[in-house]
Model the fold of this input.
Amino acid sequence: MSSKKIALLGFFSLLMVFSPGLWAQAESTPSFPWKNKTEAFRWADRIIAQMTLEEKIGQMIMIPAFGKDDPEQEQRISKIIQQYKIGGLIMMQGTPAHQIRLLTLWQQQSQVPLMVAQDAEWGLGMRMKEIPDFPRNMTLGAIQDDSLIYQVGVEMARQLKQVGIRMNFAPVADININPANPVINTRSFGENKYQVARKSILVAKGMQDEGVMACAKHFPGHGDTETDSHHSLPLIQHSAERLDS
Done:
């Protein structure tokens, strides 16, 4: 595989799974006429071949945006999209109506469809007050019927698609083995690594079967830290063997 394809692999691997009618419920996402992955690969190759080096670099950049009524932000991001041809957006807090309106506008302004992500660990409600939350992972970890865990992933993805999201920075796959951890705790499926792995895979599969890319997180060992990584750098004082296991 050439370097130019590798550079945009994350972006185009997302686009490859799109199907023509998938975005019928939301205007905030472009539609594609592809019938299969082969056609999607050809489309990606053609688009990449037309890009300058600066445009390829721009495709690797994702910037934050809020789904709120903010004219200054709307104009600023519109300018960035058109001038620097960025590859994606991560949507922060907002409302469904404002997010759909903004993404509709920004997708229309982008020459290459934007990859739009959201950090929605317990569903869209994590970022939007109007939407009910799904149970936190620790609650899901106590559920014995794994088919329900899969359905949580499916429903999360269904809601995310309706507001223009195609990538969710979830599930949290950390193993919660340190009771002093200030940041993971209820966001983890539990302290058993096999259960955490199984349920993480089920949520991820549910989302991806419904057309939203999953992203397991965080870095290995974060469930065994005593520091909030949002504010400082955690230090894991264990061997590489323990980390790997």
User: Anything to note?
Assistant: DSSP finds ten helices and four strands in the chain.
